[in-house]
Design goal:
- It is a single chain.
- This protein is of the alpha+beta class.
- The protein folds into three domains: 154 residues, Translation factors (Elongation Factor Tu (Ef-tu), domain 3, Beta Barrel); 40 residues, no CATH class; 52 residues.
- The longest helix has 49 residues.
- It is flat and about 120 Å long.
- The chain starts with 5 loop residues before the first strand and ends with a helix.
- The relative contact order is 0.18.
């Protein structure tokens, strides 16, 4: 399993249908192919890693040091640079492109992106507070957060107190999202469920950190299809057996009737 990740753009949501009669909601992500910019060895820094660049950027947007870096590597400038540790550096060369093929045998991935910004929100929306009374005894403060501190001791508001403030627009990671399918020709990957952010949000994908033993929907689908085939085969064999038994019964009855007729004739 590789530790290399990918960067993509969230296109939107859709759903996939399966032969067993279920539909799964999926998020479609357009993957940006990465290029190996630099190879880091143990002799240089004490560990093996590769530096991968993603996206395009104008040269005018770069500072002098980055312009010098890219000109030295004789490659086009990249918007994002990511460093990934690898076990064997000899498998990579500068200029190699990295795409969806690294997730070929991977079933689950972790996705990091920025959630949708909600602006300045009150405590009822931000933290699901119940609010104050809706009718009597509340002077136009029905949705307020209530008391935020105590008295002279401690004489302050504790850090982390749930209060009104900026909601959303934070980097969040969703773990163990199942890969439903991947389209290598169009650089698209379909993940089960939703991910943070709106359309065209930048998305970081990497291998799942946790070890997961649960079966995927595709594996469950195969098992159910196989069970259906087995039951159909069993029912077909039962029908064949019953027909053969009935045929034999008919043959025996006919033989007995013939014997009876012969006896009567004698």
């Amino acid at each position: 399993m590789t530790n290399i990740g990918l960067i993509g753009t969230k296109i939107g949501m859709s759903r996939e249908f399966f032969p067993i009669g279920i539909s799964i909601p999926v998020t479609v992500i357009k993957i940006e192919k990465g290029r190996v910019i630099d190879i880091i060895t143990k002799d240089k820094r004490g560990y093996d890693a590769i530096k991968v660049g993603f996206g395009k950027v104008k040269t005018s947007k770069l500072n002098k040091s980055m312009k010098g870096f890219y000109s030295k590597k004789s490659t086009e400038p990249k918007k994002y640079l990511k460093e990934y540790r690898v076990e064997n550096v000899s498998n990579f060369k500068e200029g190699n492109e990295i795409g969806l093929e690294i997730f070929k045998d991977v079933k689950f991935v972790d996705v990091t992106s920025k959630s949708i910004g909600k602006g300045f929100a009150g405590v009822m929306k931000r933290y699901n507070f119940s609010g104050l009374r809706a009718s009597h005894g509340v002077s136009i403060s029905h949705r307020s957060g209530g008391s935020t501190g105590q008295r002279q001791d401690p004489g302050k508001v504790f850090k982390g107190k749930k209060m009104a403030g900026h909601m959303g627009d934070k980097v969040r990671t969703t773990l163990n999202l199942e890969i439903i399918k991947s389209d290598l020709n169009n650089d698209l990957i379909y993940l089960k469920g939703s991910i943070p952010g709106s359309k065209n949000t930048l998305v970081f994908l990497k291998n799942s950190v946790k070890k997961i033993n649960k079966k995927t929907i595709l594996e469950k689908n195969k098992i159910i299809v196989k069970q259906d085939k087995d039951t159909k085969e069993i029912s077909i064999t039962k029908d064949k057996i019953t027909t053969k038994v009935e045929e034999k019964k008919d043959e025996v009855i006919k033989k007995v009737e013939k014997k009876d007729i012969k006896k009567v004739n004698k």
